[in-house]
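Field reference: sequence -> structure
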Amino acid sequence: MAKIDVVCAHCDGTKAVVRNGKAPSGLQRYLCRDCKHSFQTEFIYNANQSGTHERIIDMAMNGAGVRDTGRVLNTSPNTVSRHFKKLSPQQVTSHPFEKARVELLCDMDEQWSFVGNKRNQRWLFYAWEPGFKRVITHAFGRRAESTLQSLLRLLEPYSFSFYCTDNWSPYTSHLPENHHVIGKLFTQRIERNNLTLRTRLKRLARKTICFSRSEELHDKVISEFISRTHYQRV
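Structure field:
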């Protein structure tokens, strides 16, 4: 008779796994005597299945909204939102650009969105290095000097030859004049990345009703996309 080893969901062991009664749903539970954890391999509710968190985040990173994801995975939209709340993405790249033996350029721009309604604007400020084609750091807030200052504090470890921005006046006030280049002609590369963000993330699309209702979820989903795409070292 064929035998199938049950793999522990916590330590990946198989030799110390034994049956441990049944859950209230009637499904079999197991106990790993090595790590002392109890677990199940089958669940009635789809959200409890192994790998669900990764599938929810992957769908969000590819343009799916909360309700889209719930319909595809047969889970509640509230469950999808709870998985987003568990995210803790980076705000600064892990690539050692500050140690790079090249002259770094910095394109800086801000991208408009809203949470709940259009009166509650939520802006994404970020710095883009065109040579490496990567976001270096980002910050969220109102379109105000305080948000720009938060971004600049995150950029302190880096040394840039030039900063390229549009003609928004706070840039002129906070960036060194002899290293500051102003004009849309010099921000085309970061503007192109803005289009990528709006295309890939549903809550940033211009013509949609799938806007964010929570600033926390709005910031975390966008940050997770930036973190996965630009910050993590391969």
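Note: The CA atoms of residues 18 and 34 lie 11 Å apart.
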